[in-house]
Design a protein that fits this description.
The protein is an alpha+beta fold and 396 residues long. The chain has three domains: 2-93, no CATH class; 118-226; 230-396, Heat Shock Protein 90 (2-Layer Sandwich), CATH 3.30.565.10. Helix content is 58%, strand content 14%. The protein contains twelve helices and eleven strands. It has helices at 2-11, 23-30, 36-47, 77-176, 181-190, 192-223, 236-246, 248-251, 276-297, 303-308, 337-340, 360-371; strands at residues 13-15, 56-59, 62-64, 70-72, 232-234, 261-265, 272-274, 312-320, 323-330, 375-381, 385-393. The chain starts with a helix and ends with a strand. 16% of the residues are buried.
């Protein structure tokens, strides 16, 4: 038996197979492999449990441990090479799979960012075109209005002293001549004294109306004026007042509700460096939404209930450190937390068909946050109201 072992020992071809330390890492990569790969791993791991290098010898199709113990009897050297080749291929495929997943994630993130940038660009284009069209329209209307209104206003102001002179001249006739009965009867019939007094009141009213039309025209031009390429100092209170003036027709009483009251609590604000046209657009969007919310809250109330708890919008301004805050608060219908999470989203709206585009607040956020490095926040409680807080830096 000893001679047989010696013969086998002498006939062996010595092969050195050094398995590098790090079998635990190899184990991680090989987990989940079934069949012959798992069997091979069990053998290797049982040998390298302590970690280290190993000398193996083979005779024909059998591999031996030191001392003559058979390690692998069914697979020859070429079989083990095949197993190792398959393992390498599997590891390579796993690496390629992970690389592909990383690339897909990277490209997905890039596409998502590109989509967001495209939406922002679309908003900018819509806003720019909207303001440009509005500016051209208002400029044309204002030009056509100013000429005739200016002529009427100037004529009325000039007519007033002329009519005064005519009245004084008629009084001289009354004092110099004794009127006959026919003149006396006609004077009583038309109530001449009242007509003269009322006539001058009508002149004054027409002059005031002309001045108001001119003021509205100038306000429209100021509201929709084209911004320059750089920020300029602007009185925010003026912008708010102009916006309220434009929306005044929506604030008036109607057959469904009393007038909406606007309370102004203006602080001492410095001029803010901004794009005035864009800031006015933000005021317009938020105040128009506040009026819509108030009208929505009135649908479930009768006129008397609305009168007892009237609709109101409160506008508060204040300066703090190097910033200014504009707070626009209403006691309208309010909104749920779910709706509030989406109000600044592109094309999101809770209004009916042809009542909202879903762009107003998205544009407002872009103007405040992106174009002015500011902040806009929304606080709302259902059935109690909504508050928007706009924060702007004083200097650009």
């Amino acid at each position: 038996m000893a001679n047989s072992s010696a013969t086998v020992s002498h006939s062996r071809r010595s092969h050195k197979l050094q398995l590098v330390r790090g079998a635990k890492t190899l184990k991680t990569n090989l987990q989940g492999i079934s069949g012959i790969f798992s069997s091979l791993w069990i053998v290797l791991w049982s040998i390298l449990g302590s970690g280290g290098s190993l000398w193996l010898a083979s005779a024909g199709s059998r591999w031996f441990l030191p001392g003559g113990k058979i390690l692998w009897a069914t697979v020859g050297f070429s079989g083990i090479l095949l197993v190792i080749t398959r393992l390498k291929l599997h590891l390579k495929i796993s690496h390629l799979t992970r690389t592909l997943e990383q690339r897909v994630q990277k490209h997905t993130a890039e596409l998502t960012q590109s989509l967001q940038e495209l939406q922002q660009t679309q908003l900018q284009m819509i806003q720019s075109e909207k303001m440009s069209a509005l500016g051209n329209l208002v400029a044309g209307i204002a030009h056509e209005m100013n000429n005739p209104v200016g002529f009427i206003s100037a004529s009325l102001k000039q007519a007033k002293p002329s009519f005064i002179d005519i009245i004084e001249h008629l009084k001289l006739y009354q004092e110099s001549f004794t009127p006959n009965q026919k003149i006396i009867n006609h004077t009583n019939e038309i109530d001449l004294s009242y007509c003269i007094e009322d006539f001058f009141k009508m002149l004054d009213s027409m002059i005031v109306a002309c001045d108001r039309i001119i003021s509205i025209s100038n306000s429209l031009r100021t509201f929709s004026r084209s911004d320059r390429d750089y920020k300029q100092p602007f009185n925010l209170h003026e912008g708010i007042d102009i916006t309220i003036l434009i929306l005044k027709h929506r604030l008036k009483a109607n057959d469904k509700r009393p007038a909406i009251t606007v309370f102004k609590k203006y602080g001492d604000l410095p001029q803010v460096e901004c794009f005035p046209g864009q800031i006015n657009q933000v005021f317009m969007n938020i105040l128009a939404n506040a009026i819509d919310a108030l009208d929505a809250s009135n649908t479930e109330r009768i006129f008397a209930e609305i009168t007892a708890n009237p609709n109101r919008i409160t506008i508060t301004t204040l300066a703090a450190e190097r910033q200014v805050k504009i707070i626009i608060d209403d006691n309208g219908v309010g909104m749920s937390e779910e709706v509030k999470q989406h109000i600044f989203d592109h094309l999101f709206t809770t209004k009916g068909v042809n009542q909202g585009t879903g762009l107003g607040l998205a544009i407002a956020k872009q103007i405040i946050c992106d174009n002015h490095n500011g902040q806009i926040d929304c606080l709302s409680i259902p059935r109690e109201g909504t508050k928007f807080v706009i924060t702007l830096p004083i200097s650009a």
